[in-house]
Amino acid sequence: MDNHQQTREEFISANRSNIGLEIQKIRVKKGFSPAHLAEIMGISRATISKIENGKFAISVDYLAKFAWHLDFDVILSEKVNL
Question: From residue 40, how far is each of 3, 36, 50, 74 by CA, in Å?
Answer without folding.
Answer: 37, 6, 17, 20
